[in-house]
Every structure is written in C-alpha cells, then in structure tokens.
TrEMBL record:
This is DnaJ-class molecular chaperone with C-terminal Zn finger domain. The chain crosses the membrane at residues 122-144. Residues 87-108 are annotated as: Disordered. Residues 10-76 form the J domain. It comes from Oscillatoria acuminata PCC 6304. InterPro entries: DjlA_DnaK_co-chaperone (IPR050817), DnaJ_domain (IPR001623), J_dom_sf (IPR036869). PROSITE patterns: DNAJ_2. PANTHER family: CO-CHAPERONE PROTEIN DJLA. Pfam families: DnaJ.
Length: 154
C-alpha cells in the first residue's frame, strides 16, 4: 500500500490488538503503550517518542469511539478487498485520517459533544447550580437587611 493510506499504519497492529478487540482491551493496550512511549518518561529520543505517542493516541481515539471505529473498519475492509487493486483507487476523502475527516487537528482531545454526561457529572452540575443560587440569595438577603451606613472611605 502506498504511504498515506490507512493500512500503511494499521491502528490495531499499532496497539498490538486483533480487529475484534473490545473497548477494555483497547484501553488496556493504550495505557500500557502510552506509559512506555510518553515523551516525558520514554528512553527514546524526544521527537521519536512524541511521534510514537501521538500515533498511539490517535489509534486509541479512533478505536475507542464506536462511530469512528466503524468508519475505520470499513475503510480497512475496502482496501483489503482490493478496492484499489483493480485499477480503481479510493476517493481522496477515504484516505484521510479520522481526525482530518472530522475537521480536527491531530492531538486535539475529544469534543464534549462526543459523549453524554455521566450521572456523577450531572450531580456535580446540580450541586454547583444550587450553590450558586444559594450564594446569590444570601447576598440579596444581606443587602436588603443591612442598614444604609455611609462608607468611611467616601
């Protein structure tokens, strides 16, 4: 395969997994490899470690998201079945990495819209909202019950 196609850097092979790997297996492989290749802790040269870590991060981001993983699997299957082997090449937009296909630059974190809030996060937001409203009511109550005392600084 020419460089730049998805199979030139197979995310499953990069993480040392089979195509049918589960999300916990993907997470476990990512954690192990990210510890090994993190630029701050790796014995490799800084640039090489940074590049390898970025590849591992991109692979994890793609394979841990159901939608992106499905698209990636379809692209791999089309390449493997010879979509480009009989003189027909893949369209240019099929050769893009998932990051560029979704308009993100490599290395950006997940967007907040990609997953719903957990129950714990919703609870924390509720408590913060109640606290904010309570503080505002307390400030208003103090302001209304306080006598108008002229400020000594005016």
């Amino acid at each position: 395969m020419p460089p730049g196609t998805l199979s030139a850097l197979n995310y499953y092979a990069l993480l040392g997994l089979s195509n049918g790997a589960t999300v916990p297996e993907i997470r476990r492989a990512y954690r192990q490899l990210s510890k090994r290749y993190h630029p701050d802790t790796s014995p490799l040269p800084q640039e090489e470690a940074r590049e390898k870590f970025q590849q591992i991060k991109d692979a994890y981001k793609t394979l841990s998201n159901d939608r992106e993983r499905h698209l990636y699997d379809v692209k791999l299957r089309l390449e493997r079945e010879g979509m480009g082997g009989n003189g027909v090449s893949l369209p240019p937009h099929w050769k893009r990495t998932p990051d560029s296909a979704y308009g993100r630059s490599p290395g950006m974190g997940r967007e907040l819209s990609e997953r719903p809030l957990s129950s714990g996060e919703l609870f924390v937001l509720l408590i913060l909202g109640i606290t904010l409203i309570g503080c505002l009511l307390l400030a208003i109550a103090i302001g209304l019950t306080r006598e108008n005392v002229p400020s000594p600084y005016l």
